[in-house]
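Technical annex, item 7. During the second reporting period the consortium partners agreed on a shared format for inverse folding records so that results from different sites could be compared directly. Each record opens with the tokenized structure and is followed by the designed sequence. A conforming record, contributed by the partner at site C, is shown below for reference.
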């Protein structure tokens, strides 16, 4: 078993080299990892499928997503705008007089990453948290997930080999295993931030632990999400059957084990969507990722079904996909039981009788990763859209939330309890979690970081005296 103190101290020692490495050097480290994982894709897919039963097609795509993320973050740091380099030249005649101020973002230090169960590559050992931290110069210690231990260990071996071959310092990356080891990692004074993807209960416990340290550190958690969907009466009347097919595909995708699975769908009373949905729901019993997830799914479904006023629309066999339905009045009376996330192939239809009843129901929702709106073309939605925007980090139109593109503009987060911060865990700006601002005042040019020197030797985008300057 890897000693937490040893790897954390090694990460702290490596930070002296990772924080001073050039962005091009760190991009090369990430590219080396990506190349090594791509070359081992067949082996990794076989290992992961044996442990997760997610299937070759899904897993091969996930390896490609993982290596694509690594390369994207390399592009992000080389491009340079992530530094937010900002210069205000001295203005002695201003009131009050203004000194020369130069601001940029710098890496925090060693980061602890808690791997997720449902993405054995993209949110695991070499996933987006690891990539975004390494990209900006933060060493990483990953607490692996027990749901895919052999996949995690082999991935870690490949990452370690790639970093060493690319010239990264020893200690820039490591893994630990075990529940107690994870707690010890959060507590270790060398760790400066924690990134977590997992349950609300587990994330809240770690968040509180990180805050209770003698020196509190930021905790970036992606937690529970019900990802509500609104179907207007007009949309249901024109394409209810098509919407049923889309919903069936989305909530059953990957056995419902996506953080963006649509868990609550608001439909008009007597909806065509509800009528068409039962025929599209499978009756098999998919294998879920871990025994704990399997148990939690059964418990969650039973909790919902025990609420008076909840109907079973489709499914119901132990472990099989389930669609339940209720009305807005029942939701109002039992929101705690009905709006808690059920991780797995489950979705709840909430029938509404009017737009005012729909609005009142939406006002009961807590923060969520996504919110989806299906309306008719040209239909006014200004009574609904602001509510969806207020509770989510991404609003979709005429689509389904499962599937998160890794791009510069992506935001994968939302108000509590979806996440614990305003930052994203997917996309280019995920690096912002592991950076802090620093200002140099009246500093001689020769001692400044290259990004802030007058001649801009890096050639990066900057803001100078309030004016944005391109690269």
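Designed sequence (site C submission):
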């Amino acid at each position: 078993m890897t000693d937490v103190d040893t790897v954390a101290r090694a990460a702290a020692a490596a930070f002296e080299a990772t924080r001073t490495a050039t962005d091009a050097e760190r991009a090369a480290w990430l590219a080396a990892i990506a190349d090594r994982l791509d070359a081992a894709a067949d082996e990794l897919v076989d290992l992961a499928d044996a442990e997760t039963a997610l299937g070759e097609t899904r897993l091969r795509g996930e390896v490609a997503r993982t290596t694509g993320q690594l390369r994207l973050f390399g592009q992000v740091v080389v491009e340079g705008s992530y530094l937010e380099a900002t210069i205000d030249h001295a203005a002695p005649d201003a009131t009050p007089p203004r000194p020369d101020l130069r601001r940029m973002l710098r890496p925090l230090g060693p980061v602890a990453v808690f791997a997720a169960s449902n993405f054995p590559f993209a949110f695991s050992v070499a996933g987006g948290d690891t990539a975004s931290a390494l990209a900006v110069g933060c060493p990483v210690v990953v607490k692996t997930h027990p749901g895919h231990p052999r996949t995690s260990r082999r991935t870690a071996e490949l990452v370690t080999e790639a970093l060493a071959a690319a010239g990264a310092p020893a200690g820039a990356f490591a893994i630990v295993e075990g529940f107690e080891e994870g707690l010890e990692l959060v507590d270790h004074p060398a760790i400066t931030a924690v990134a977590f993807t997992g349950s609300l209960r587990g994330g809240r416990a770690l968040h509180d632990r990180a805050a209770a340290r003698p020196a509190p550190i930021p905790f970036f958690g992606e937690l529970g999400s019900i990802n509500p969907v609104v179907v207007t009466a007009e949309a249901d009347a024109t394409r209810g059957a098509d919407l049923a097919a889309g919903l069936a595909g989305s909530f059953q995708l990957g056995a419902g084990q996506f953080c963006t699975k649509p868990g609550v769908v608001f439909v008009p009373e007597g909806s065509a969507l509800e009528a068409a949905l039962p025929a599209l729901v499978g009756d098999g019993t998919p294998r879920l990722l871990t025994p704990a997830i399997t148990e939690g799914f059964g418990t969650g479904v039973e909790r919902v079904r025990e609420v008076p006023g909840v109907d079973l629309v489709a499914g119901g066999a132990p472990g099989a996909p389930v669609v339940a339905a209720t009305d807005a009045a029942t939701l109002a009376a039992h929101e705690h039981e009905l709006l808690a996330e059920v991780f797995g192939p489950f979705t709840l239809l909430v029938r509404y009788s009017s737009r005012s009843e729909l609005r009142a129901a939406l006002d009961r929702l807590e923060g969520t990763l996504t919110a989806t709106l299906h309306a008719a073309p040209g239909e006014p939605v200004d009574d609904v859209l602001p509510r969806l925007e207020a509770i989510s980090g991404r609003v979709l139109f005429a689509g389904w939330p499962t599937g998160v593109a890794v791009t510069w503009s992506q935001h994968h987060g939302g108000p509590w309890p979806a996440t614990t911060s305003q930052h994203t865990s997917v996309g280019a700006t995920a690096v912002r979690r592991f950076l802090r601002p620093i200002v140099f005042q009246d500093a001689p040019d020769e001692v400044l970081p290259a990004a802030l020197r007058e001649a801009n030797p890096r050639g990066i985008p900057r803001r100078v005296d309030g004016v944005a300057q391109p690269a």
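The chain has a mean pLDDT of 97. The radius of gyration is 24 Å. All partners now use this format for quarterly exchanges.
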